[in-house]
């Protein structure tokens, strides 16, 4: 059974930093593609960043140069380092893992709330 558990969210002032973590179990983490998404109140869910099984990364334009996605295969943990946060980054953040057979991002965590005050 695949389980993803996010942590690290919280309240931070504009300009501050947070690091989100996503602990994974039940998947072959080392070669699995994963993503971070976020959803602000009243808005559509949006892709924030992704990392391929080989370690290639990509980002939404809105977070490029401020956020960094990474993973520690030894710890089965995905990270999102977020710097220079602004109130526009306030959202629930979710990690997602791709199903290796269907190639769909079928596995999701429960989310962690990030709130940035001005």
Concise summary:
The chain is built from no helices and 11 strands.
- End-to-end separation: 40 Å
The ordered string of helix (H) and strand (E) elements is: EEEEEEEEEEE
* CA-based gyration radius: 13 Å
Structural class: mainly beta
Q: Supply the number of helical segments.
A: 0
Task: Write up what this structure looks like.
There is one protein chain. With 118 residues, this protein is mainly β. Helices cover 0% and strands 53% of the residues. The chain is built from no helices and eleven strands. The protein has strands spanning 3-7, 10-13, 18-25, 34-39, 46-51, 57-59, 67-72, 77-82, 91-98, 105-108, 112-117. Strands 2, 4, 5, 6, 9, 10 and 11 form a seven-stranded mixed beta sheet that branches. A hairpin with a 5-residue loop joins strand 5 and strand 6 (57-59). It is globular and about 45 Å long. The mean pLDDT is 95.
Topology diagram in text:
Layout: E1 3-7, E2 10-13, E3 18-25, E4 34-39, E5 46-51, E6 57-59, E7 67-72, E8 77-82, E9 91-98, E10 105-108, E11 112-117
Parallel strand pairs: 2-11
Antiparallel strand pairs: 1-3, 3-8, 4-5, 4-9, 5-6, 7-8, 9-10, 9-11
Question: Which features does this protein show?
Answer:
seven-stranded mixed β-sheet, 118 residues, four-stranded antiparallel β-sheet, single chain
């Amino acid at each position: 059974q695949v389980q993803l558990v996010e942590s690290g969210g919280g309240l931070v002032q504009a300009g501050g930093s947070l690091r989100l973590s996503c602990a994974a179990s039940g998947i072959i983490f080392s070669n699995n593609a994963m993503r971070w998404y976020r959803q602000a109140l009243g808005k559509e869910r949006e892709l924030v960043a992704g990392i391929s099984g080989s370690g290639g990364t990509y980002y939404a334009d809105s977070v490029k140069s401020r956020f960094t996605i990474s993973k520690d295969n030894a710890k089965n943990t995905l990270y999102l380092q977020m710097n220079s946060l602004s109130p526009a980054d306030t959202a629930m953040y979710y990690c997602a893992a791709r199903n290796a057979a269907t190639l769909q991002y079928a596995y999701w965590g429960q989310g962690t709330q990030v709130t940035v005050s001005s």
